[in-house]
Every structure is written in structure tokens, then in C-alpha cells.
Amino acid sequence: MIVETPIEITHVPGRLRQDFTGKIPEATTGTADEREANFLSRALAAFALNQLAGCTLDEAASSIVDGGGDGGIDAIWYSAASHKLWLAQSKFIRDGRGEPALGDVAKFKTGLENLLQGNFAAFETNAAWKALIPKLHAIFKDGALEVRAILVYSGTATVSEDRRRIFDDIRIRFSPGCDYLQIQTCNLTTIHDWITGADQGPGIPEVDLKLHKPGWLKEPYETVYGLVPLSEIAALYRNCGPKLVAANIRAYKGRTEVNEHIALAVREEPQHFLYLNNGLTAYCERLEVNNLDRANAEEKRIRAFGFSIVNGAQTLGSIASAVPNPPLLPPEGHVFLKVISLERCEDDVGFAERITRSTNFQNQIGDRDFVALDEQQERIANQLILSGVAYHYKEGEDTPAPDATNFTLDEATTACALMANGADCEFCARVLSNRRSFWSFDEVFPSGDLYRSRYAKIFRPDLSARAIWRAVQAQRIVKSALKTSEIGVRKDFFENGRWLVLSAIFLRLKPQLGDDLALSAQEEASLTQAAQDYAERLWTVCQARGFVSARAGGGWEVPRHFRSVFSAVGDCRLLRGALLANIDGASAAPPAAAVQSNTGTP
Q1: Which of 35, 140, 284, 429 could form a disulfide with 27 if both were Cys (CB 3.0 to 4.6 A apart)?
Q2: For position 201, what pLDDT does the model report?
Q3: H or E stretch at 190
Q4: How many CA atoms lie within 13 A of 364 on its CB side?
Q5: In terms of DSSP bridges, do strands 334-341 and 280-284 run parallel, antiparallel, or are they unpaired?
Q6: DSSP letter string over 229-246?
Q7: Is the pLDDT of residue 22 over 90?
Q8: Beta bridge partner(s), residue 228
Q9: Cα 446–452–458 angle (5° rounding)?
Q10: Rounded Cα distance, 42 and 24, in Å
């Protein structure tokens, strides 16, 4: 069994080297691999403090105290502004799997105990620690002090129960019923989110807006609504770009018929735009109304933090496309905007998703669009983007054509469906009969199944982005290999039978597995040959089962069109079983026939 190396680990060393080379001293003893591991482990501790404590890279580098007598604490940083003392233990795990050893965690606990009890003498053999001891005496006299401990490691596993019990024990002892001591664990997934910025979420950090004729609701969730000039909304979109609508179901789709009507209204009758458009809905993490406008019924200036427009991406993009820069709109028009604060919402993530879904039901939105909200899609994109591969799971005007560094949700869906294809061959048949059903969240499988919807079965959380991208590449190769210049029955066979061929290739050759992100030239050649070989074997199977027969005067005849055959679950199950038996039991000699003129992509 091939055990995948998580693709996230390939991005970590480069970022740590970029941020901390020359800032953190390099080890001078040991092998080259040992010295590199030592540097990366120290840099990981500094990186965690940079991300969580908010210190600069130089400050984070200066926080390193790793070495003999460090008590299992690799970095220490005190923020006088927030009265927080940050302590980090780090473990760089080269293969990206597993978690820190139990002994290392126990050592970290002992170091925390000594520190929290004022037993500073336990650290005096470490020069960096010894220099800090006078400051520690002063820090622990701070009545507002809070201690934040971090265990950061580059493995995908979450910490085991025995490690959690160690942390729970020390937290309960030193911080009963309060937040004085908090302990946080950060694994490879968290580290990768820091690198990609995925931990920041969609939207823009801060925006200032002026709403005319406003309304203001304060309970249960603070909401301000009103009118914003079209020119100001256009300027906001130009300044912030697609990130402004990143939380939306769809990006701006460009010049569609509906969007042209929106833009036409902006250009020709902006004074009536308010009456002709539903407006925009946004949410934010926190909302501030200017104190001088609290009683102003004509306008309110607001500042929104973590601001995302979640309904109205097409309206927003169309306004920006129609309003010239600088704006020339006599008379000025307005668009309705509603801003909802999630600050008081206990389940802010869940409620934000509900807002996005509900406000978009009024539009022509399908299952494919709601798939774009699923965290699995963002996970796939984030795992690949630092390797130069872009996954486009939202529809938008700037989506490039699929190529060596770009692929789409449509491609990923068919590849994942065929990898998940079970013994009943239902998914293989659905690729032809009802491909859109793969985007359904409806629970159609028994309650005992771990994944109850078709979507959940094909986009499983344990399916890596690397495997998906390799599968998509294999899919493209198979489609190209079975592009034939033949006509009639043979042409129909190759066009419709290629999905069953690809399913067999995923089962027998497993091109989706491997540590390299891109398929090699040797793999491409092997898959091309296998696709043609498997297709001819499937043709032979179809003849043997009566799905195609030779005419007496030449040519071929079929009782049913091959699209009908390969869209039927029962037929797919029968033919795939026979094909796999043929492949497994066949001799090395290839079939006599060969696919002709295999060029291009269907």
C-alpha cells in the first residue's frame, strides 16, 4: 500500500527558509539533514509566534531559546501591549505524518510547570533562558498576565488522547475556571493555512462605507442597511477585487444576458437602479457605526471588519463594468446594501453559510453553485496553489481554460466519481446519465454509511488534492487516447465507453497515487497505451456479451446505442466485471485492433 506524503509538507520548508534564513542561527554540528531539521524546527516555533502572537519575523527569530536545558520550550515571547506570554514547542516532521513523541510532550509539560511555579533555576543551564530570567520575574508580577502555550508540529495527525490529557491536567491545575493558561495545538493543516492565508477567511479586513437613508437593527445581530452610490460601490470593487466576493457562491461571470441588463440599467437610468435590482447582502465579523451618526436618520458612516459581499456578485461586477473611472453618472444612482454583523452569533461560520445560501435562493442557483461553499473545495485549492496548480471550483469570467496548471470542478467531479465508483458501477453510469447529481447534498445512501450523499462520497475529506490532480491528468490522457477518427458504431463506443475504461485504469494502475504532483512522461505513455489496450478489450467483451456484432456485409450493428449501454448501471456492472477479468487473465499479447488517429481532446 502506498502511503501518500501530504502535499502540504512540500510547501513548508521553503516558507520557513524564506522568512528565517539569516535570522535564526544555523547548527554547526551533525549531518546536513540533521542541521536542516534543526533549523526548520526552530523556524517553525518562530513562525507560530509570528502568526499567533503577532510579533514581527525579527522578533519571532529572537524568541528562540531552543537548546540544552530549555525545558522543552523552544521559543518565548512576551507582548507588553496584550499582557500575554507566548511559549512554543515545535517539531518539524519531515514526512508530514504523525505527531510529536509522548516524551517530548511530557518534557514540554515539565518546562511549563517549572515556569508557572517560578522555578526559573531549572533553565539556568541554557544561556538564552538565563538572560531572560530577570525579565521573567517582572512579567510574572503583572496582575493582567495571561500565558499562551503552543505545540506546533508539521504532521497531519491530531494529538492523541494521552497528549491531550497531559495538557488538560496542567491547564486545570494552573488555570481553574479562568483563561490564565491556554494551550493550543497546531498541526500541518494549520501551518499550511498560515502559509496560504486560508486562516484569514474570505473578504477584506476593513472597509469604510456611508449609507444613505439608513436603517439600524441592534438585536439579535447588529445590522445596518441603506443606499450606497453606484460610483462608490464600483470604486470599492475596483480597489478590492475578487476577494470582496470570495465568500459568494459564484464569482462575477462577466457578460451574460442577465448581467448585460444590469449594466444597461446602470448606464441608461441610474436614478431608477434601486427599483430594478435586489441589491447586495454582506456580512462582517464586527461592525462599528460612527458615534456622530448614531442619531442621524439621513446617513450613517460605518466601519466593517472582515467584510464579505455574499449575495450580489453579478450586480457588483456589472456596476463596476458600467460605471466609468472616474465616474460620470448624472444623476447619481444608488444600490441597496445590507450589512450583517456576526459578532454576537455563537455559530458565526454556520450562520454565515446560511445567509449565503438563503440570500441566493432567489437567483437561478443550482447544486454546482452551492458546492463552491463546501470547505472541501477550498481545501483542494489551497493544497495546490503553492505548487503552481490552480483549481477553479467557482464559475467566473476570469476562469482560464484547463491546461497544465489549471483544472475545473467539472474535471475534478468526473475523476473523483470514477475513483469512488463502487462494485455496483452506479457512479460510472451517472457520468453519462446524470453528471449533475454528483453535486447533490441529498442523503440517498443508508444511515449506516459514513458519507450519505453522492457529493460527500466523491469529495471525501481523506482524498488529497494531489490524488485529485493526478487523477484529472490521467483522465485527460485517457480521453485523448480514445479520441478516434473512426465513424459510426466504433466512434460511439469510444466516446461513451471511455469512462468505464478510466474506471478500470484507476482500479488496476492507480495513477492517482504517487508523491509527484505531475505525471511523468513515462506515466503518460503508459496510460495512453493502457487506455487503448483496455478499450479494445472492452470492445471484445461487448462483442462477447452481444452489445455489438459484425454485419454480414461489413460494418457493425448494435441493438442499443452505446450511450444507452454505458448509462445503465446493470450493463456497466456486467461489462466492467468482464473487462477486469479479461485484463487480469489476459496474456501479454495486445488485441489485434488498435484505436486510429488518437489526436486531440474531445
Answers
A1: 35
A2: 61
A3: helix 188-196
A4: 5
A5: parallel
A6: EHHHHHHHHHHHGGGGGT
A7: yes
A8: 335
A9: 135
A10: 8
pLDDT in tens, 77-126: 999 989 999 999 999 999 999 999 999 999 999 999 999 999 999 999 99
Three-state DSSP string of 11-52: HHHHHHHHHHECCECCCCCCCHHHHHHHHHHHHHHHHHHHHH
Q: Which residue has the higher pLDDT, 456 or 204?
A: 456
Instruction: Provide DSSP, 361-395.
Output: TTS---HHHHHTTSHHHHHHHHHHHTTT-EEE-S-
Determine the residue type at 592.
Answer: A
Q: Residue type at 423?
A: A
Q: Which residues, including other chains, have CB under 8 Å from residue 320's CB and lie 6 or more apart?
A: 233, 234, 237, 238
CATH of span 7-196: 3.40.91
Beta-carbon count within 10 A of 288 CB: 16
Q: Please report, for the chain, how many H helices and E strands are present, in that order.
A: 22, 14
- Rounded Cα–Cα distance for residues 300 and 216 (Å): 9
225 class by beta-carbon count within 10 Å (0-12 exposed, 13-18 middle, 19+ buried):
buried
Alpha-carbon distance values, 461 to 4, 377, 465 (Å): 14, 10, 10
Q: Is the dihedral of CA 66, 69, 72, 75 positive or negative?
A: negative
One-letter amino acid at 300 equals: K
Is the pLDDT reported for residue 347 higher than 60?
Answer: yes
End-to-end CA distance of the chain: 34
Q: What is the mean pLDDT of residues 379-394?
A: 93
* 8 A C-beta contact, residue 221 and residue 285: no
Do 116 and 174 touch, CB atoms closer than 8 A? yes
**Is 0.90 topped by the overall pTM?**
no
Write down the pLDDT at residue 329: 54
Q: What residue ranges of the chain are covered by domains with CATH 3.40.91? A: 7-196
**Residue at grid coordinates 441592534:** 218
Contacts of 49 (CB under 8 A, 6+ apart): 55, 59, 60, 63, 75, 77, 86, 88, 150
Beta bridge partners of 341: 284
Distance (Å) of CA 164 to CA 22, 113, 151, 175, 179:
35, 16, 11, 16, 17
Q: Judge contact between 445 and 453, C-beta under 8 A.
A: yes
